[in-house]
Design a protein that fits this description.
two-stranded antiparallel ribbon, 11 helices, 37% helix, disordered N terminus
Amino acid sequence: MDFMIKLFVSLLLFFFSSLLFGEINGVESSNHHHHYHLYSPKKLFVFGDSYADTGNTKEPRAVSWRIPYGITFPGKPSGRFSDGRVSTDFLDYAGEKRLQYGMNFAYGGTGVFNTQVTFPNMTTQINLFEQLLGDVYSPSDLSSSLALVSVAGNDYSDYLSLNLSIAAIPAFINQVVDQTEVNLRRIHALGVKKIVVPTLQPLGCLPLYTLSASFQGCNDTFNTLVSYHNSLLLQVVAKLNNETNHSTFIVFDFYNAFLTVFKNKGEYPGSTKFETPLKPCCEGSCGHVDEEGTEKYILCDDPESAFSWDGLHPTQEGWKSVYSVLSKNLTSSLIKP
């Protein structure tokens, strides 16, 4: 293990304490019966990008460590790409027990393959996890574990930013999903018993892509490509579960959960929590200032009134709404043997 690997693992060991001791308000099940005979995960391992990163992207260019990120929780920048908690924080509860142990390998900006943020991609994250097996985590640890494998589309945004062939995007989507299947198989083979895989959110509805429509409508072309990605992903998960004869792989339908919140302006019909759900709270170059220290962004009065924090990431309230939509089946799917 070279110096960089050792350094990164050290950072991970430090930052995963947010999973252990942070004030996390998870989504609780409406079913309060005990399920002692069902699967009860005790450890959470996280692989992914900025939607799941709780503080690993510790470098000067990471806006997640700059004001105004973290203004809602914990009151200052904590490395989360939001005003507060992110997806991982809301998954930190499974069944009726807190997932008190585990490690977060997610790194903002990365993807299934190398992106312009080159360290570490999903394969590298799994490599780091594998290096800890035997010394830090035993087979019995993994037998009571849950993994979140979350990618939010950096492979595709990176592809588009490089001006590569638009006509070749469907073939590239196939490559991304094929590699995702390899990753899921590998994590399961290492001993993780339950693996959560979110579908890709409707990228065309994120503020970065709704800006041209004054935040009034989604980019249907982008969402069509996302739907293709998700259809392939669902086929992969169905195949893997068929092979294992078990409910090992669980899909969290971020795509429809996001759309539900956008349509309702909140998690339930008639909600007015988010008046303009396609508009971000932090407009402009969030987290950046010019040479004179003047902010290059405009901040909304109340982050709880916005679904999106910046051009790509939900607010804490946005994530809360997404998990509220998912909550009906969330707990039962995680504890199902």
